What does this fold into?
Amino acid sequence: MSMKKKFAALGIAAILATVSLTGCGSKKEEASNSPAPSKPAATESASAPASETTDNAVKLSGDFEIQYFVGGYGDKWWKQVIADFKAANPDLNIKESAGPKINEQMKPRWIGGTPPDFVYIDGPELFNRQMVEDGQLLDLTDWISTATNADGEKIIDLMAQAPQQYDGGKIYDIPLVLNAWGIFWDKKLFADKGWEEPKDWASFLATSEKVKADGITPFIHTGKYPYYILRSLLYPAVVSANNNDINIIKDMSESKVEAFNNPALLAGLNQIVELRDKGFIDKASVQINHTDSQMLFLQHKDAFIPNGLWLPNEMSKDVPAGFDFGFIPSVTQAAGGKVIANTSTATVGIAAKAKNPEAAKAFLAFMFSKAQASQFAELSGAPSNIKGDISSSNAPNFVKDAAKFLTDSNTVVIPFFAFNQDVENAMYDATVALTISKITPEEWIKRVSDVAKKVSK
Amino acid sequence: MNSGTAKWQRNVFIASFILPTLVFFGIFTIYPVVQGLYYSFFEWSGMSEHKTFIGFDNFKDMFHDPIIWRAIGNDYFLVAGKVVGIMVIATFFAVALTRFGFKMAGFFRSIFFIPNVISVVVIGVLWNFIYNPQIGFLNAFLSLFTKDQVTIAWLGFTSHTIWMLLPPAIWAGIGFYMILLIAAIQSIPASYYEAANLEGAGQWKQFRNITIPLVWEQIKVSVLNIMMTTLNGSFVIVWIMTQGGPDNSTQVMGSYLYQMAFRQYHFGYGASIGFVILVLSLITTIVLQRLMRHETVEMS
It folds into this structure.
């Protein structure tokens, strides 16, 4: 009998425990996760033009939370810039929410309406266009038009690539990184074999012909991630065919149907078809991921690979001795045409529901200075989006070269445009289908413009 | 009075076992299902504070989405292929290892079971290497018989690429069902086979008239289990090996759900796909149970 009573008591205890657990779950973790609700101390000086200058005008205090993803660029620069900012604003209590999984970890906070103040938009499960459409980011249009950094320079004038404009000119996030897509090869291999390095479409095809005759496949890409070939080959091709006017890419990113019916797009797609029909594209491409394609490239199974400037860094452990990366932002231009550099970036923004927007704006202004530009290049291994001379910094050589390329007046720079994900995915699928001869360029255009039509309704 | 308390105590005792399980089942199974169904009526990016109620629009959209139909087709293709492939091979191995008195039976039993111990992710990566057109085992093997190097992209056909996912899925599944059938066959009294032998029945007749009827319950359970794990779990192998590509030709419902919810930011649509998976699993379970019901034979 007493045994039974004990069991009953145990059972009830278990029930009570689970019931209290459910109670926790339904409160959406607000209590445990969110920072102590503090009044942003900056309110006392809200009337001052706080955003236009940094710490010297306004004394920032209170809590300030920064969310940053730690991926290919590491976190060395973030730790440094936050320490610098903290030194300039000793009263500010800075909280860092960072890590390779931080985007997933912070998701409930964004959904629950208690986001961090400042966010670095990089890595999976965070996407700037979607955040803008969801109203998660603060409108920075007015702020950026006048904001200056500590050196008194206007931030917008310092930027190598302009921020993306949504809904007819609104700015919500600022590009922090300036990276570029392009075509890589091994200079050493080319010199040994007597192949000519490509400068334009004609020389690229001529070299590919020779490469193929020598028994090596000219071109490999990753079919699992078709944006590598899209952004390194198709976008530059389309811009070249559009008389170096980048607006076609902008219009495509805004899902404007007429942009997809522009003959320049067809011309660009036909360049991919030309590669395909001449047998230059490695048949393995369709089914492999980026790492596998990069490995095959490093093993000299293939001569060219479309990739981003992070490639040497990403593969540094596997690069064979003597391998010498050659790089050009685009090969699709006609002889004598301008080189088209399609950029890749990661942006920063401020949450629409930030509790301390003044601190966030001050931090934004703080990070866009020339001093931070060379520090960024050094610590994260990529050029920052700040026009500044980094040749004297300790940044790796290919970063310096890239920066030179991207700031050259003869290069047409395509700033990063975030596409609608339905349209972009249709482009991915169609591009893979195109490279394996499943569809024609006309069908590519039909498919993608149908999706564009649907989403722009 | 006294009996009343005893009855009450008995009920409390029973409840103390049932209720915690029920509560956990409610929290971790029923609640997510209801929540999923709830989200499927909204247009929601999965990242936003705001959701828009759109009623059945997600389900209506699904009707006009060619990819979802292909995904459902691929799912049932995998179910059919795996049921046939796994059951035929697992039954063959089980019979071979029990009825034919191999000396090495224990060794082979372990060997065949190994793929079951390996995580599906590892299996996907492994078979990706086998199928790799440049450095893969399959092309290297085929190249032994041809003059030129074979460079077939096994996972990159313009259509029917889903066929290539069957071998890894079957290979990974055999071991478990083989063990299940071995146990069932071993519980059949040896005297049945002896009697059949005396009557002059050969191995095939014994298999057809003794083994199959007496392990039918296990076969039924195996088929249902293969069906359910495939409809709910083929996501993993698809995502590791092809991510649904090329051009959505290997998309299954699970991978398409992931694609829509987390890559194209249509969380509501993803939730409605999840609901379709649930409904289809239930319907298929009922249909299969009906189809396989009548042949049960009792061992006396």
Summary: The longest strand of chain B covers residues 42-43. The beta strands of chain B are 42-43, 52-53. Chain B has twelve helices and two strands. Chain B has a mean pLDDT of 91.
